[in-house]
């Protein structure tokens, strides 16, 4: 079997690469610069070998649009120089929240994005806890969505083991994820429901689906952990923290983001709402990353499984 090269977007710094190196991946040297008018420049400095595997790992945030452009340049240049086995890894998939037509005539941006990537001759796209996996039913290519429930459950068990924990899913979309984490931990979980204004995107209503039982939990739990797939403005999690505090909860409130974007004053908003601690994985650069929540070991496994299954060729 050929070598496995890690062709990382030169601007993607948060993702931990040690697990890749430990498994023998070699880092492909890629030069990047930006022209004065903002256009992206990419040059691949190593020789490309048809027999080798190329794992293109792309940054999702910030600067989604230029990240996409660099990704396209890297993939297409690899192809031009003979790479035939290309796996794209996009831990935080940009545009993933525009996954359906909320209003007539809208673009389903995430589907357009993955279609374009696969047109370049990519066999697999791997992502992590994508906002809505069912969106990909409309896509014919191969997408692997890695879910991180076990990672979070193990981390929580280690870190907060002395506490009486209750978990919260901030909306119906996260319920399954939280249910699995709670099951592993043997903890209770509660679900909130939210409705957004489809034009402005603002949350118009956000409340627990079973108010009575979460009010009971406030009496026994000493730590609520709320995990969302994306923390953007922080509004969703701040609403819940504020609700808990208003109901008289005095214990610890921890919020976790798989993809922590922390836009604008999100951190301040969270802390002011009563959140004590913020934790995040390494898919997006932010100050709250915990190494034990790094998704890299899971990515490495998924890649090695694909390569193993497909043997010499991934296409
Ligand atoms: C949307 O439904 C997502 O799952 C997140 O809840 C949302 O993106 C969080 O956004 P924000 O932090 O702006 O409330």
In short:
With 315 residues, the protein is an alpha/beta fold. It has helices at residues 18-22, 64-80, 109-119, 149-159, 175-185, 211-220, 235-246, 266-272, 296-310, and strands spanning 4-8, 26-27, 30-34, 40-44, 53-57, 85-90, 124-128, 142-146, 165-169, 188-196, 203-208, 223-231, 252-260, 277-280.
Summarize the helices and strands and which ones pair or pack.
Layout: E1 4-8, H1 18-22, E2 26-27, E3 30-34, E4 40-44, E5 53-57, H2 64-80, E6 85-90, H3 109-119, E7 124-128, E8 142-146, H4 149-159, E9 165-169, H5 175-185, E10 188-196, E11 203-208, H6 211-220, E12 223-231, H7 235-246, E13 252-260, H8 266-272, E14 277-280, H9 296-310
Parallel strand pairs: 1-2, 1-5, 5-6, 6-7, 7-8, 9-10, 9-12, 12-13, 13-14
Antiparallel strand pairs: 3-4, 10-11
Helix pairs in contact: 4-5, 7-8
């Amino acid at each position: 079997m050929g070598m496995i090269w890690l062709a990382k977007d030169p601007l993607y710094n948060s993702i931990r690469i040690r697990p890749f190196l430990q498994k023998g991946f070699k880092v492909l040297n890629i030069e990047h610069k930006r022209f004065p008018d903002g256009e992206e420049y990419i040059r691949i400095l190593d020789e490309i070998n048809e027999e080798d595997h190329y794992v293109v790992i792309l940054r999702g945030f910030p600067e989604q649009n230029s990240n996409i452009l660099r990704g396209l340049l890297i993939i297409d240049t690899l192809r031009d120089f003979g790479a035939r086995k290309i796996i794209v890894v996009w831990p935080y998939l940009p545009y993933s929240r525009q996954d359906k037509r909320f209003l007539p005539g809208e673009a389903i941006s995430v589907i357009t994005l993955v279609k374009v990537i696969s047109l370049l001759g990519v066999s697999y796209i791997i992502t992590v806890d994508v906002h809505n996996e069912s969106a990909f039913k409309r896509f014919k290519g191969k997408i692997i969505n890695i879910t991180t429930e076990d990672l979070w459950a193990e981390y929580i068990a280690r870190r907060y083991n002395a506490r009486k924990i209750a978990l919260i899913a901030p909306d119906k979309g996260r319920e399954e994820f939280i249910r699995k984490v709670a099951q592993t931990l043997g903890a209770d979980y509660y679900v909130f429901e939210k409705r957004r204004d489809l034009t402005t995107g603002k949350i118009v209503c956000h409340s627990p689906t079973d108010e009575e039982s979460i009010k009971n939990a406030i009496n026994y739990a000493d730590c609520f952990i709320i995990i969302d797939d994306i923390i953007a403005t922080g509004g969703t999690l701040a609403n819940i923290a504020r609700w808990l505090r208003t109901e008289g909860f005095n214990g610890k409130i921890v919020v976790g983001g798989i993809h922590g974007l922390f836009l604008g004053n999100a951190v301040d908003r969270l802390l002011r709402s009563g959140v004590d601690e913020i934790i995040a994985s390494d898919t997006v650069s932010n100050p709250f990353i915990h190494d034990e929540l790094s998704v890299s070991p899971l990515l490495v496994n998924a890649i090695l499984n694909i390569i193993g299954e497909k043997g010499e060729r991934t296409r």
